[in-house]
Amino acid sequence: MLAHQMALESPMVEAEMVEAMEFPELSERFHVSGVPQTTINAGAGMVVGAVPEDHLIHEIQRALRS
Amino acid sequence: MVNRLLNEDITRQVSEFFQQLQEPVQVLFFGSKNNCDYCEDTRQLIEEVVGTSDKLGLSVYDIDQDAGLAQQYKVDKTPGMVIAGRDGDQILDYGIRYSGIPSGHEFSSLINTLVVVSNRDSGLDQQTRDFLSKLDKPVHLQVFVTPT
Question: What parts of chain B have a pLDDT lower than 50?
Fold first, then answer.
């Protein structure tokens, strides 16, 4: 939901909700263990759990620097 | 007569919740005839949801037959959905996707996403909006969820 809100807000953001059990290969590739898990730019960053906006932003900033 | 996925209660609740919808939303559904266990249920689910408000529209595509369109909208899994805005004939792609069936907890997320897109307002904190407005690199978020 938060990811979708960010996508609506910014043309630079795309957000895809993935049903983990239907796509086990992708889930395995990103080592999904707990849900929701948010993967940023194909693994450059990652957040587990439902987190507040500032937390996700912090992780996005870190992923963009890496 | 196909059994409905949403019972009367849920249908009424969703329909009442959708009274707040402002602008048209177009859902682009991509299914497949091959190896897609959840395509039919997902198509039926979104059809029932879209049917609860005249602000919502649905286009149904096949990822193989409509491969060009799938590529244009970056849909690479089935069932796949793009939750877009619509302005006349124009589809407004905000980069909002679902891969897999949005059931269980994800059903309420789908309903909320439809509202957010229809109202063209993310509802995010000002600080978050400020950060996003300064983004100069693409950010691709993939949120892994399970139905329960």
Answer: none
Query: Does residue B124 belong to any structural domain of this protein?
Result: yes
Which one of B94, B140, B146 has the shortest CB-CB distance to A20?
A: B146
A46: tokens are 């990652």
**B94, two tokens:** 């905000």
Which residues of chain A register pLDDT less than 50? none
pTM: 0.96
Sequence-distant (6+) residues with CB within 8 A of B33 are: B62, B64
Q: How many domains does chain B have?
A: 1
Beta strands in B63-105 (DSSP E): 80-87, 90-92, 96-99
Which CATH number fits the domain that encloses residue B30? Answer: 3.40.30.10
Give the domain extent around B86.
8-133
Whole-number Å distance between alpha carbons of A55 and B42:
32
The question of ipTM being above 0.90 is answered as yes
Q: Regarding beta strands B139-145 and A37-40, do their DSSP bridges make them parallel or antiparallel, or are they unpaired? A: antiparallel
Cα separation, B95 vs B141, whole angstroms: 10
Smallest CA–CA distance, residue B115 to chain A, in Å, is: 11
The residue type of A60 is I
